[in-house]
Amino acid sequence: MTALPRLRVPEGDRAARVAWARLVEPGDPAAARLVGAVGAEQALHGLDPASALAQRLLPRLETLDVVRDLEIARALGARLVVPGDEEWPAGLDGLAAPPFCLWVKGPLELREACARSVAVVGARAATGYGVHQARELAAGLAERRFTVVSGAAYGIDGAAHEGALAVYGATVAVVAGGLDRPYPAGHAGLLGRITAVGAVVSEVPPGSSPTRWRFLSRNRLIATMTQGTVVVEAGLRSGSRNTATTARDHHRVVCAVPGPVSSAASAGCHVLIRDGAILVTDAAEVAQEVGPIGELAPHKEGPYTPEDDLEPVHRAVLGFLRVHASTTAEDVARQCGTSTAEAVSALGILVANDLAARDQDGYRRARRPSPT
Amino acid sequence: MTALPRLRVPEGDRAARVAWARLVEPGDPAAARLVGAVGAEQALHGLDPASALAQRLLPRLETLDVVRDLEIARALGARLVVPGDEEWPAGLDGLAAPPFCLWVKGPLELREACARSVAVVGARAATGYGVHQARELAAGLAERRFTVVSGAAYGIDGAAHEGALAVYGATVAVVAGGLDRPYPAGHAGLLGRITAVGAVVSEVPPGSSPTRWRFLSRNRLIATMTQGTVVVEAGLRSGSRNTATTARDHHRVVCAVPGPVSSAASAGCHVLIRDGAILVTDAAEVAQEVGPIGELAPHKEGPYTPEDDLEPVHRAVLGFLRVHASTTAEDVARQCGTSTAEAVSALGILVANDLAARDQDGYRRARRPSPT
Q1: What does the alpha-carbon distance between residue A203 and residue A20 come to, in Å, rounded to a whole number?
Q2: What is the mean pLDDT of chain A?
Q3: What pLDDT shows up at residue B301?
């Protein structure tokens, strides 16, 4: 058994949380349990050197320097947000292993921004269709005053942020690496624009590289910071299916946008819908599911026509009339299987509604007016 | 009140049913109630001349000639199928106003063909995508020994019949007009091919033209002759939504194929799915819903990779290894937040699984073998 080295950690809860974020990977269940039980500071300074957790931390304890970490964050212009802070997003508290702290950069107040927010996520290998839909959906949600939360990846994520930015809406990027490591490199400009007007968030300290594990862990933040997750395009092995599963497990709304069944990029969305996710086709439908009760999307129907109000028998009679030739009431009755009196009555109603016209030879169908 | 003319109707149930099919429009509730209560023959010959129904029938009673109707059917090569016949499709009996009789042409035994059948229906104004999917779906269902039932219209219906015919499968066209009136005219050839190997069915007598009311009535036959209905493409006002509603009301399975949300031709399918229809992407998924229990479609997952079986910590360790540079176990431990012993153990497991390789400088990620 190796003794613990002297800790380079200032006093207080915030510094202890930075230490934990540096010492263990996101979502570490043992560390989360201990910090949850006795608090970050006590968990760190009272750590039993004989415990499995302590032994596991040894390699990183040697290089731990929280003072330097805090200085780096300050130099980056990032603020540290910890549980109990006014800015801490309420949704994260439901996680089994919530982040120890968050590094946040940008003018958005995080808790407020997340209080009415939707995650719009999807495949990096998106199609033109998916990118277009993500942008439209995010813009529509932002216009409805939802914050659009995503992961700043290529493809759907980037398009979601872009869509929100395009309408001057609120958007939050939750990234898998440190805030000083814009990733992917091609999105450094996008991340800069999000930082300028929204917020970029990470649970790993500056200097941390984005790893596969951290991407998966990051997804649990996106899924629980928000009230709902919309998957726009996802292959069968897409990480966004993982985000959707986490959202569902935490009783968040899960929506998915369908696409051609011939498109591999939509296959994951179709599996989600078959497994219970709500099919959505636009921002209004997402808002209806995610927003407070009363934000109802209009039920989609075709355009109204005067024929919609007709009773079946009148509609049947109308179906027999022609525009260019007249028909007698007796003929209509025979064709429609009504009595002559019923046919005359129906024809009268159609004429009164400008759907039919009468001339000396009988009845004609009125020319349909052009829609106004 | 006018007295009834002398009826030109031979004796027996079959002739009386032909008379009723000629006298009223499909689905007529009053006539269906009367025939259901006292039988077709008694309902006709005992018809009270003072009743509203009788007065309504007068215009058609004058031209009724069942002997001629039976001769015409015989000349067409059509057979008459009535309730109680071995060939009568069982599913129709659940209708409030079942057909009085069916005119059937083609070698398929109708009841047997319908006992394992799916309706594949959709918009006339189909896209290339919809036509392709309808054909694929119908072919896949026919290969699974389902009879494909549809309405022979342009677009999805025609493609569904074509798909079944292409794999020498069973297909039934239920048409809205008389069997001597191939409609649409451009599908006369298709209807001929269906007649040659499958069956063409109508509930209206030869000579009847297809009308809007008869199209809607016809849909209730398609919906209830089958165990399930799949809508492939449908606009918001498509008649196939009406078929789907009838299928649902009669506790049949309702499935819909999604498409791009930007396609008006898929909008009706998306509404159906949002209202509870099952999203399907291929014939296997339809068969799972419609077929007897046990015909399970494979749950769609991505291809298997050896990494799938790894525990999270091993996967995390693997994520840190590079193909072109070696890393020490201590470095891995620091990066992954494990103890050195855990890192060594994980690396050993990865090497044993050919996912990592060891050299004098430490560990490298193994080159991924090309999928076999």
Answers
A1: 11
A2: 91
A3: 66
State the Cα–Cα distance between residues A86 and A345, nearest whole angstrom: 71
Contact, A248 vs A231, CB < 8 A?
A: no
Q: CA-CA-CA-CA torsion for A113, A118, A120, A121, nearest 10 degrees?
A: 90
Average pLDDT over every residue of A234-240: 91
User: Alpha-carbon distance B77 to B71, whole Å?
Assistant: 10
Domain A306-365 fold: Arc Repressor Mutant, subunit A (1.10.10)
At residue A273, the pLDDT reads: 97
Q: Which residues of B touch A271 (CB under 8 A)?
A: 299-300
Q: How confident is the model at residue B37 (pLDDT cuts 50, 70, 90)?
A: very high
Q: What is the pLDDT of residue A372?
A: 35
B197-220: average pLDDT: 95
Using CB atoms and an 8 Å cut-off, which of residues 275-334 of chain A contact chain B? 278-279, 281-282, 285, 299-302, 312, 315-316, 319-320, 330, 333-334
Q: Which two tokens stand for residue B364?
A: 């490298």
pLDDT at residue B62 greater than cutoff 80: yes
Residue owning tokens 């002997």: B67
Checking phi first, is residue A362 left (phi over 0); if not, alpha (psi -120 to 50) or beta? left
Note whether B259 contacts A257, CB cutoff 8 Å. Answer: no
Q: How confident is residue A87, by pLDDT bands cut at 50, 70 and 90?
A: very high
- Give chain B's length: 372
Measured CA to CA, the distance from residue B258 to residue B232 in angstroms comes to 8
> What pTM was estimated for this model as a whole?
0.81
CB-closest option in B59, B279, B342 to A273:
B279
In the sheet with B79-81, reading across from the earlier edge strand, the strands are B79-81, B102-105, B199-202, B171-174, B147-150, B117-121, B228-231, B253-256, B278-279
In this model, does residue A298 exceed pLDDT 90?
Answer: no
| pLDDT value, residue B306 | 64
Burial of residue B283, with CB atoms counted within 10 A of its CB: 0-12 exposed, 13-18 middle, 19 or more buried: buried
Q: Does A262 touch chain B (CB under 8 A)?
A: yes
Options 4.10.520.10, 3.40.50.450, 3.30.70.890, 3.40.50.300; CATH for A90-290 is 3.40.50.450
Which are the contacts of A197, defined by CB distance < 8 A and separation ≥ 6?
A: A106, A107, A108, A165, A168, A171
Going through B87-184 in order, the beta strands assigned E by DSSP cover 102-105, 117-121, 147-150, 171-174
pLDDT given at position B333: 85
pLDDT tops 90 at residue B154? yes
Q: At what angle do helices A52-61 and B329-336 cross, to 10 degrees?
A: 110
Domain layout of chain B by residue ranges: 13-64, 90-290, 306-365
Per-residue tokens: A234 = 């996802």
Q: Output phi, psi for A22, to 5 deg.
A: -80, -35
Of B59, B132, B260, the CB nearest to A333: B59
Could you tell me which residues come within 8 angstroms of residue B178 by beta carbon, excluding any fewer than 6 positions away? B103, B202, B204, B205, B206, B207, B208, B209
- Looking at the complex, does the CB of residue A251 fall below 8 Å from at least one CB of chain B? no
Please check whether residue A258 touches B, CB under 8 A.
Answer: yes
Judge contact between A150 and A221, C-beta under 8 A.
no
How far is B226 from B223, CA to CA, in rounded Å? 6
* Residue B290 token pair: 């419609």
Nearest to A25 among B52, B301, B336 (CB): B336
Q: ipTM for the complex?
A: 0.79
Q: Which of B147, B151, B188, B189 is nearest to B164 (CA)?
A: B147
